[in-house]
Amino acid sequence: MVPQIDRTVEVATKLQRLRAQMAAREVEAVVLNQLPNIAWLTAGASTYINLASDTGPSSLLITHDSASVMTDRIEAARLEQEESLPTLGFTLAVEPWDQRGTQSPGRTTGKRLGQDGPGQGIDLSSDLQTLRTHLQPEEVERLQQVGALASAALAEVMYAIQPGMTEYAIAGMLAQASLARGGHAIVNLIASDERIARYRHPLPTSKSVERYVMVVLCLRHQGLVAAATRLIYFGSIPDDLAAKALTVARIDARMMLGTRAGKTMADMYALAGEAYREEGYPSAIEEHHQGGSIAYLPREILAQPNDTTVIAERQAFAWNPSIRGAKSEDTIMLGPAGPSVITQTPDWPMVTVTFNGQTVQRPAILER
Predict the structure, then answer these.
(1) Could you tell me the CATH superfamily of domain 137-367?
(2) Do 200 and 180 touch, CB atoms closer than 8 A?
């Protein structure tokens, strides 16, 4: 059971931050339709119906003196009774389901409008992404809980994998283990044997496991997302595979140690490129992105050569260096003392990596 965190102060602070940004952009009203932004402002309320959609049947309308949930009669009772939105300071504006979306235009007439995407108003997507990724203390605590849930779900599945299982079956176990803990496996990638080296984003197939399996999970709970990758090998791990796994562990460790306030995402990309070159894999950085910040999306901002986004404390990151056949990935939280892993898998074998006098533990391939 995940401990409950008081959402009232979190929401009140976020409304203040959003309204300050509205004033800076000279916006009088903001309409939020995107699920990550709604989850952010409501401290994790679930307003979605379709997990495959970026939007849901409800939206938020924020002015300098009001906060409304624009919804219909189908959703209103649950949003009030289970998501507690009125208690958090939101007024429910309820309309018939067949007239969904008709109230908002009348409420914003004559106002300078902002929204979280392209349209008639000012696009505040970038502003909202900045607000989402600079986590409040309550969000740090909630994301640490999400990391623990993801770790537990991964451990349950990894220790249950057996040769002969299909990738589909493993993906099903991962989805079930996530949902049983109150989360959703919104990224659920499974590869076995030769598919691990062949594809960076391996959707599960009917292929049966022979010796080697990679499981990639992004688990979402109360809007926030934690990501991790684990690998298992049945039999003795070949020397060349063990060497590749150690290589990506070293690159991952260097990226974690390099995650410091004041650095930019371009700095992180350059750091990764240097690490790949020194490890003898100079072209690997071109074969897959290296990860980036994580909050209400599996990746909020990717590390790219010219991205000047500045890293700050109380931000989370999931770097994912890989070379063909091996990968290393966890979610880290950047605090005053530096980064810490929040997706540590219980009882998992680890390798120790030392760089510039600093030591980092990274997951090894589980050998069975």
Answers:
(1) Creatinase/methionine aminopeptidase superfamily (3.90.230.10)
(2) no
What does the chain come to in residues? Answer: 368
Cβ distance 295 to 132 under 8 Å? yes
Domain residues of the chain, as ranges? 8-133, 137-367
For residue 364, pLDDT beyond 70? yes
CB atoms within 10 A of CB 77: 11
* Topology alike, domains 8-133 and 137-367: no
The count of other CB atoms within 10 Å of the CB of residue 26 is 9
**Three-state secondary structure of 295-355:** CCCCCCCECCCCCCCECCCCEEEEECCEECCEECECCEEEECCEEEECCCCCCCCEEEEEE
Indicate the burial class of 191 (C-beta count within 10 angstroms; 0-12, 13-18, 19 or more): buried
The Cα 102–Cα 95 span in angstroms is 8
List, for residues 23-44, the tens digit of each pLDDT value. 999 999 999 999 999 999 999 9
Q: Percent of the chain beyond pLDDT 70?
A: 98
238-266 mean pLDDT? 98
Phi, psi of 196 (to 5 degrees): -65, -40
Q: Which residues contact 356 (CB under 8 A, 6 or more apart)?
A: 257
Beta bridge partners of 114: 30, 122
Spatial separation of the C-alpha atoms in residues 156 and 149, rounded to whole Å:
11
Q: Which CATH architecture does the domain made up of 8-133 adopt?
A: 3-Layer(aba) Sandwich (3.40)
Residue 186 burial (C-beta neighbours within 10 Å; 0-12, 13-18, 19+) = middle
> Is 349 within 8 Å of 363 (Cβ atoms)?
yes
* Helices (H), ranges, 167-219: 167-180, 194-198
